[in-house]
Structure formats: C-alpha cells, structure tokens
Q: What sequence folds into this?
C-alpha cells in the first residue's frame, strides 16, 4: 500500500505533467478549434478491437455521442459511414436516406452550427470490392466513372447539411468534379481534399472494422501516393489547389510531417493532417503494456503535427488531449 507521502508525490507529479502538457500546447499555438474528431456511424454499436476506446455509433445514439464530444470543447467532427450492406456500385453512399446523410441531419437538428460536420466522400465502404473507385470489367479502377459517383455522394452530404465534404478516393479530377456538382446545385459546402493519401498499412485498424466483409487483400497503390515520392505528393496537392480545394489533406501524419512543412512553405495554403487509426493503435498497444507514457506521447505527437504547420488535425486522440488546451 502506498504511504500518504507516495500519494502526495504522485499527485505532485501528475500536476507537473499536466502543467508541462499545457505549456507544450500553448507554445505550439494549438487551440481546440484546430482539432477534428473522427466519428464512425453504423447501424449497430460495435467496439473496434484494434482501436481500444473507439466504437461505431448507431444513428439512434449519435446525438448523445456528439454531445460528449461537444462537452470536451471540440466543435468539429468528420463522419465515416459504415453501412449495413454493400452493393456493386456502392449506391447507399449517395442515398439521400443513407447512413451518413441521416447522421448529418440528426446532428444538425440537435447542434445547428455549433458543431461543424465534415464527411468522408468515397465508395470503398459501400461497394463490393472495397476499392475507392469503380472497378471495370478488366479489373482496373475507372477514374472518370468514379468521379460522377463521388460528385453525387458529395452533393447528397451537402444537401443533408454537411459543412465540408472531403473526397478521399484519390481519383484524378475529384476536386473539380465535386466543386462543379456543388456549384450546379447551389450547395455551399467547402471541399477538403484528401490530396496526399499515402498507401500505408497504418490504415489497417480502421479497415479491419470497416472492411470486415472484404476477404481479398486490398492493394490501393495504383491510386494512392507512394511513401518514396514526395514530388508526386506535392503535384497532387498543387493540382487539388488549382481545381479549387478549400483545404488539402495529408495522411498519415507522423511519417509525413516534412511534407506538411513543404506544403505550407511552397503553397501557403490551409492544410489538414489526419493522424490515422494505425498511429492510434500503436500508441494504445504500447501504453497497455506499460511501455510508454500514453498522455505524454499523445501530447507530443499532436503538438508536433501543429508545429509542422497543420491548420486542422484529425485524430482519435483529440478528446483525450482537449483537457490540456
Ligand atoms: Zn476509399
């Protein structure tokens, strides 16, 4: 049993850790308004085994869940939909009564403009292949056919009330296609483009939950960016800026912070960074073994993303670190 002296010492240490975390965030210039929390909506509740503490939330509980996010002072979320079933063309992705569209309406009716909603715009959670594009008979991803679907999905999210739509398929011309559709329907959602989404096994924890029914190994390297090619990543980002993206995104986070700085220096443009599921799982797994100080690592990693130049940080750590801001 610890003596009262030990308890006093532990309290003192906890207090000095808290002070140091607050000082780190203050010096990095981080504010709660920079943070975005990812939300998975599904038909039934489900814990994600490889992401301890993260769950899929059913529509009937979505407002209650978003209230817990708002209670921590966070006013921005990004929604990923996990539909009940998939079909060959991923039609539920653009269904006006689809899972994401219903979630947007539900959240907006409870929170109005106090909660900003960004939505993931892709078909890989909705089609049979799990690819981000429509796969033609020859087995190739059909870029131009996919653009039409992405535009429809984005418009259906904007119609439901999304503030920002985020095409994540990495198709050529996706920003232009989405912008044109929004404009023609007089919808004023902003466009955040997943411009430099690098092919990575760091997406595995999310995919193991969202793609549980896909049994074949997914190789998205033909349309995602390679780790080894920062020039191509910069070109993708420049193209999206030229097509009218309101903000560009780089993911994963910690292995690409040099790229974040390069983009800020070269384009001086709003940049979002996504700290992905694998980056979360690594920290959680090590912390559960007692091998790292979990809070310290969360604070240091979020501060480093801000220091690199991110204007928005999407991370599963957001709710845990909000208390230090
Ligand atoms: Zn996708």
A:
């Amino acid at each position: 049993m610890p003596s009262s002296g030990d308890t006093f010492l532990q309290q003192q240490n906890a207090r000095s850790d808290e002070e140091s975390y607050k000082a780190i965030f203050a010096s990095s210039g981080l504010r709660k308004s920079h943070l975005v929390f990812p939300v998975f909506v599904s038909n039934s509740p489900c814990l994600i085994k490889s992401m301890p503490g993260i769950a899929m939330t059913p529509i009937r509980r979505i407002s209650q869940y978003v209230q817990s996010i708002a209670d921590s002072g966070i006013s921005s979320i990004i929604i990923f939909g996990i539909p009940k079933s998939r079909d060959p063309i991923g039609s539920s992705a653009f269904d006006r009564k689809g899972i994401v569209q219903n979630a947007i309406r539900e959240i907006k009716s409870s929170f109005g403009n106090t909660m900003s909603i960004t939505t993931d715009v892709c078909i890989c959670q909705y089609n049979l292949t799990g690819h981000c594009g429509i796969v033609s008979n020859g087995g190739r991803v059909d870029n131009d056919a996919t653009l039409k679907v992405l535009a429809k999905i984005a418009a259906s999210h904007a119609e439901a009330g999304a503030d920002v739509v985020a095409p994540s398929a990495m198709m050529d011309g996706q920003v232009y296609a989405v912008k044109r559709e929004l404009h023609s329907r007089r919808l004023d959602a902003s466009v955040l483009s997943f411009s430099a989404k690098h092919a990575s096994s760091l997406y595995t924890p999310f995919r193991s939950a969202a793609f549980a029914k896909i049994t074949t190994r997914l190789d998205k390297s033909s349309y995602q960016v390679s780790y080894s090619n920062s020039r191509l990543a910069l070109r993708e980002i420049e193209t999206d800026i030229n097509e009218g993206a309101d903000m560009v995104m780089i993911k994963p986070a910690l292995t690409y912070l040099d790229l974040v700085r390069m983009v800020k220096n070269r384009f001086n443009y709003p940049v979002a960074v996504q700290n992905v599921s694998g980056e979360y799982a690594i920290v959680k797994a090590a912390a559960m073994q007692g091998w790292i100080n979990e809070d310290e690592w969360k604070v240091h990693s979020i501060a480093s993303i801000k220091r690199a130049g991110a204007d928005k940080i999407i991370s599963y750590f957001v709710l845990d670190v909000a208390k230090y801001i």
Notes: The pocket of zinc ion is lined by residues 122, 124, 132, 168-169 (CB under 6 Å). The mean pLDDT is 90. The chain has one domain: 30-324.
